[in-house]
Design brief:
With 200 residues, this protein is mainly α. The protein has one domain. Helices cover 84% and strands 0% of the residues. Helix 2 packs antiparallel against helix 8, helix 4 runs antiparallel to helix 5 and helix 7 packs antiparallel against helix 8. It starts with a helix and ends with a helix. The model has no long low-confidence stretch (mean pLDDT 81).
Length: 200
């Protein structure tokens, strides 16, 4: 549970400041200022992560590179939609990586991330390891689907909705959806465990 909370916080904080900065700057300054401000804050955010953790998470690196590339296109085209598409592409890539690792490489990358974030939780497991890995694999599958679907929705909002709506969906909205997703996953996990132990 603690490991998943840390994972959720990492996803939540990724690109939070650049998105809010872009929304504020676009509403009050020329578009180029908003794009450059978003890219600059993305750079400061990734520098802070490196300073604080002495490493960069894969999500952070993908998100930063995409913000720079898409921000450059936005500057060239003078169209902020390019910049607003970068978080959607990040989510789609992460969903594809989670799903691809699970079904092509038979690798539960989410389990590896949990071990890295909270190694003490695996010292005295409350469930048999094989059973625990099965549940985490199911969680990884569902999380991959969520990221792909939310990425598509965020991309459509970036194209058709206002910047304020898009920024809300990328920051607070995503946090709310991810929290509800986790609560739903744990609810169904408890149901599965009850049925399993009743059958023993």
């Amino acid at each position: 549970m603690k490991a998943l909370s840390k994972l959720r916080e990492n996803i939540f904080l990724t690109s939070f400041l650049p998105i809010l900065a872009y929304w504020y700057l676009e509403a009050n300054y020329p578009l180029r200022v908003a794009i450059l401000g978003g890219i600059l804050l993305a750079l400061l955010e990734i520098a802070w992560e490196w300073y604080y953790n002495r490493k960069l998470h894969l999500v952070s690196k993908i998100n930063f590179y995409l913000m720079v590339i898409m921000g450059g296109l936005a500057l060239l085209e003078n169209d902020g939609v390019w910049f607003k598409l970068s978080p959607a592409i990040t989510l789609a890539i992460m969903g594809g990586l989670l799903g691809g690792d699970l079904y092509l490489k038979k690798r539960v990358i989410l389990l590896e991330m949990m071990k890295e974030l909270s190694p003490k939780s695996f010292a005295n497991p409350k469930l048999p390891l094989a059973l625990f890995e099965h549940f985490i694999a199911s969680l990884q599958r569902d999380l991959a689907i969520l990221m792909l679907l939310y990425g598509v929705a965020l991309g459509l909002l970036g194209i058709y909705a206002t910047t304020a709506v898009w920024a809300f969906a990328k920051t607070i909205g995503f946090y709310i959806v991810l929290t509800l997703f986790m609560l739903g996953e744990f609810f169904f996990l408890r149901l599965k465990l009850k049925r399993l132990f009743k059958g023993i």
